[in-house]
Amino acid sequence: MEGEGVQPPDENLENGSRPRFKWKKVLRLVVSGIKAAGLLLCVVYVCLQFSSSPAKDSPIQRLRAPVTGCEGGRLFIGTSKNEYETMEVQNNSVIINCDGLYLIHLKGSFFQEVKINLHFRKDRSPIFVPMLNNGQRVVFTVVTSLAFKDEVYLTVNASDTLCEHLQINDGELIIVQLTPNGYCAPERPYSSTVNQVPL
Amino acid sequence: MEGEGVQPPDENLENGSRPRFKWKKVLRLVVSGIKAAGLLLCVVYVCLQFSSSPAKDSPIQRLRAPVTGCEGGRLFIGTSKNEYETMEVQNNSVIINCDGLYLIHLKGSFFQEVKINLHFRKDRSPIFVPMLNNGQRVVFTVVTSLAFKDEVYLTVNASDTLCEHLQINDGELIIVQLTPNGYCAPERPYSSTVNQVPL
Amino acid sequence: MEGEGVQPPDENLENGSRPRFKWKKVLRLVVSGIKAAGLLLCVVYVCLQFSSSPAKDSPIQRLRAPVTGCEGGRLFIGTSKNEYETMEVQNNSVIINCDGLYLIHLKGSFFQEVKINLHFRKDRSPIFVPMLNNGQRVVFTVVTSLAFKDEVYLTVNASDTLCEHLQINDGELIIVQLTPNGYCAPERPYSSTVNQVPL
Predict the structure, then answer these.
(1) DSSP letter, residue A161
(2) What percent of chain C has pLDDT over 90?
(3) Rg over CA atoms, chain B
(4) Exposed, middle or buried, B197 (CB in 10 Å: 0-12/13-18/19+)?
(5) Are residues A141 and B144, on separate chains, in Cβ contact within 8 Å?
(6) Would you state the pLDDT for residue B84?
(7) Dist CA C142 CA C127 (whole Å)
(8) What pLDDT does residue A37 have?
(9) Taking an 8 Å Cβ-Cβ cutoff, which residues of chain B contact chain C?
């Protein structure tokens, strides 16, 4: 019977190659240990990437809009649907959604002497815009700190001309955020009151 | 004979520890299932990363060049081999390769009254540069939208002096892109007509 | 005895399903090969990510500080603890740590005519700041190249008033780096000589 004559298969191995078989077992253990560690490393890394996926940088806030006239005492800021539009214009005011330092540039030529003030925050005095060519031309660049809820608009007055009769040539307003990645208010549905003007 | 006395090895197990053996088999299945899922997750993630490797941000387009004289009615724009050079100068024109909003800054002092115009696009009127100190000094900053194929150059004229006789002190032109990651034309081999000037 | 009647378990398989068994073995080899390759790919990718983890972009260097008076012939630059402070002010000088192109903006109103010069490097002539409103108002924007060890400060003099008696309204200095990721000196411990002023 087997018990006396025929040894179970494993026993046959052990006599002749017991150390080889042990070494093989250790090797197999080490390999699967390494494989498990490698897999664990990868899975942990992937999970970390997903959980800490870098907050998508908010796009640089910017606006480039034609300034084409005067309406209700304010310069009329048109908007043009091109890739520079990441800021909204409402009632000739540029709505600020993200905190940061902004570059504001205004240029244009008038047919009469005008005085322009740049407003951006209720409790702050406006910036009086220096003019050129006896008050008939503006090429003005300023840097200021703006924050969510600010609204940038430009009031204009001419001593002898009604606002609505003011004519402007080559008028343009550019606002660019210089320090992106500050606080940004959640985006609101784009309202329809913007002044659609072909650029 | 075996049939009566000696059972095959597996049968020996089953009687005494059949549930334990089944449980081991299920465990082994679950473990290898988890390992396979983990591996699949990692491989899919790695492939996604490779396939969607974020387009390398194009470097911010910028130029800082000395303005040292006048040539052919244009201010002579030298170029200096330093890390600010990502834009090419040809025939005293700065070649624009990437769309975006740019800050252009010009400064310098002349020995006579001059008038400078900033040109950047064929079908657009140039920007008349306001001067200081009776037209003998310029410290001018403007923001404008430039696009591929635009060329920035500065025409200068003085009522009583030939262009080539104009002398400029501390002249410098700086152009910096404020909104990188717009469209960029594929890079062309750098041509040799630029004006090499030690800064 | 076994030799004649009872074959070892493997032998039983071979006769009837030898090709099936071989095919299974090949399949198992292929699967573990794929698993090993997949695991290797992931581990190599993860290691590459760790070893080449993108140098953390240095934050855009910027300062927005109130300018509130005059001290030792220099405009007094206060500092306010808000998120715009990534630059240090010492002895009314803004310390430059990172190379790059910077936008410098100064605004303010005085009660007398003043002359202001913008200094930033020992061996460079200062920039004479153009004034408005008969020298009593400044709204000035300039772009210049600054480097580690530069110090930005503003000297001011008034023909008939002592520096310490000069009064300024709505004075503000803003400095913003336009080309981040240039060379930055290692950060030094923040010194205590800065002028703490509530903004």
Answers:
(1) B
(2) 54
(3) 36
(4) middle
(5) no
(6) 60
(7) 9
(8) 85
(9) 1-2, 6, 8-10, 35-36, 39-40, 42-43, 45-46, 49, 60, 62, 64, 83-84, 103, 105, 107, 132, 139, 141, 170, 174, 176, 178
CB atoms within 10 A of CB C25: 10
Taking residue A109's Cβ as centre, other Cβ atoms within 10 Å add up to: 17
pLDDT, position A16 = 55
Determine the residue type at B109.
S
What is the distance between the alpha carbons of residues A178 and C104, in angstroms, rounded to a whole number? 12
Let me know how long chain A is. Answer: 199
Q: Which two tokens stand for residue B81?
A: 């081999």
Contacts of C55 (CB under 8 A, 6+ apart): none
Task: Kindly list the distances between the CA atom of residue B45 and the CA atoms of A56, B42, B48, C42, C156, in Å, as whole numbers in the listed order.
Answer: 18, 5, 5, 9, 60
Element at B21 (helix H, strand E): helix B9-51
Cα gap B88→B77, rounded to integer Å: 11
Nearest to C111 by CA among C170, C31, C184: C170
pLDDT (tens digit per residue) in C45-103: 888 877 765 555 678 899 999 999 999 999 999 976 566 678 999 999 999 999 999 99
CB contact under 8 A, A64 and B130: no
Residue C103 pLDDT: 97
**Closest by Cα among C65, C166, C60 to C110:** C166
Bridge partner list, C110: C168
Q: What whole-number distance in Å separates Cα of residue C199 and Cα of residue C79?
A: 8
Q: Which of B195, B198, B199 is nearest to B77 (CA)?
A: B195
Q: In chain A, where does DSSP find H-type helix?
A: 9-51
Residue, of B190 and C105, whose pLDDT is higher = C105
Q: Count the neighbouring beta carbons within 10 Å of the beta carbon of residue B177.
A: 27
CA A38 to chain centre: 37
What are the tokens at C177? 């780096």
Distance CA B172, CA B108 (A): 6
What distance lies between CA C36 and its chain's CA centroid?
A: 41
Give CA angle at B184 (B182, B186), nearest 5°: 160
Q: CA–CA separation, B121 vs B130, rounded Å?
A: 19
C-alpha–C-alpha distance, residues B127 and C79, integer Å: 37
The interface pTM score, or ipTM, of the predicted complex is: 0.75
CB contact under 8 A, A60 and B178: yes
**pLDDT tens over chain A, length 199 residues:** 444 444 444 444 455 566 777 888 888 888 888 888 888 888 888 888 777 655 556 788 999 999 999 999 999 999 765 666 789 999 999 999 999 999 999 999 999 999 999 999 998 999 999 999 999 999 999 999 999 999 999 999 999 899 999 999 999 999 999 998 788 998 665 443 445 443 3
- CATH code: domain B62-177 is 2.60.120.40
Phi and psi at residue A124, to the nearest 5°? -115, 145
- pTM, full prediction: 0.76
Binary contact (A41, C39; C-beta < 8 A): no
Task: Give the C-alpha separation, C136 to C166, whole Å.
Answer: 11
